[in-house]
Design goal:
By secondary structure, the chain is α/β, with parallel strands linked by helices. The chain is 44% helix and 9% strand. It has three domains: 86 residues; 136 residues, Peptidoglycan recognition protein-like (Lysozyme-like, 3-Layer(aba) Sandwich); 65 residues, no CATH class. The structure holds zinc ion.
Length: 308
């Protein structure tokens, strides 16, 4: 295989050069013939890759044979990943392996509450086959941090939702679940542990301050987590997410449009009331409804001019 790849890279370079040569008739020569044969080799290698892919696809679906009848079963997570990698190869293109690459990094952190009664219950939930949900981290009320997936893996925590123009939040984010029944305050021990984890993630993956958000931010019609007691202000003071200047709020100018401001912040405004509710749950924390008061607008304006 390595030999093939070497030939392919040379072949690609030569193929480009040969296009130029073709316009100069007298120079059609041994070098032209050589590059043509290399182009043929690329095509051959591409065919082989496609053939391999087809075989592997069949193998992954056909798990066993029972008296000549094919028996199917659900693929394991490892098999699913392998299958996904295979489908990432574009069959209509030629293939020449590049050698410089690594994993894509997360660029958002999404914070959740579990709506369950214990860390153990949540861990169990993420290990049951039928639930189809997971997150990278679970943090207990006692500050215990449990990692359940590699940071580079795509957890299933965000679901349908968007933030700005990012429509596949699972692909772009780390999910952190805080053990919480959906109503209680979050103990300091739990938040202290969260802040340490956020610090690590922010430094390791260079995640921007604005990209530490809540589940309700990206799915305001479906979700309300983390609940109204979550200390976003404390997080913002440490550089995770944003907060406003409570002592110096000013009336927004006459042409300030709150709906546009929310959209620019990232909210999906297809349901404005839901987005406003999410905004108020996070920054206002009282009278969580779909209507912006004069003070709410001043808060929004302060955030808008400070960070956007
Ligand atoms: Zn959630």
């Amino acid at each position: 295989m390595e030999k093939w790849v070497g030939v392919l890279v040379l072949g690609l370079l030569c193929a480009c050069a040969s296009n130029k040569v073709r316009t100069q008739q007298p120079l059609v020569s041994a070098s032209q013939q050589k590059s043509d044969s290399l182009t043929a080799l690329i095509k051959e290698e591409s065919k082989l890759l496609q053939k391999d892919t087809v075989l592997l696809e069949v193998e992954s679906d056909t798990i066993s044979e029972d008296n000549g009848n094919t028996v199917f079963r659900e693929l394991t997570p490892e098999e699913k990943l392998a299958e996904q990698k295979r489908t990432g190869i574009n069959k209509s293109a030629n293939w020449a392996s590049a050698i410089h690459y690594d994993n894509r990094k997360p660029n958002f952190v999404i914070i959740h509450h579990t709506s369950q009664n214990s860390t153990a219950q949540t861990v169990r939930t993420f290990q049951l086959a039928h639930t189809k949900v997971s997150s990278h981290y679970v943090i207990g009320r006692d500050g215990q941090v449990i990692q359940m997936l590699n940071d580079y893996d795509r957890a299933w925590h965000a679901g349908k939702g968007k933030w700005g123009s990012v429509t596949d939040m699972n692909s772009a984010s780390i999910g952190i679940e805080l053990d919480n029944n959906g109503r209680d305050p979050f103990p300091d021990t739990q938040i202290d542990a969260l802040l340490v984890l956020l610090d690590t993630l922010k430094n390791k993956y260079l995640i921007p301050q604005l990209n530490f958000i809540g589940h309700a931010d990206i799915a305001p019609t479906r979700k309300d987590d983390p609940n109204v007691n979550f200390p976003w202000k404390r997080l913002a003071e440490r550089g995770f997410g944003i907060w406003y200047n409570e002592d110096f709020l000013v009336e927004p100018p006459y042409n300030f449009n709150p709906i546009d401001a929310l959209k620019i912040m990232g909210y999906d405004m297809s349901n404005p009331e839901a987005a406003i509710r999410a905004f108020k749950r996070k920054y206002i924390r009282t009278e969580v409804n779909g209507v912006l008061t004069a003070r709410d607008k001043a808060v929004l304006y302060d955030l808008y001019r400070k960070y956007y």
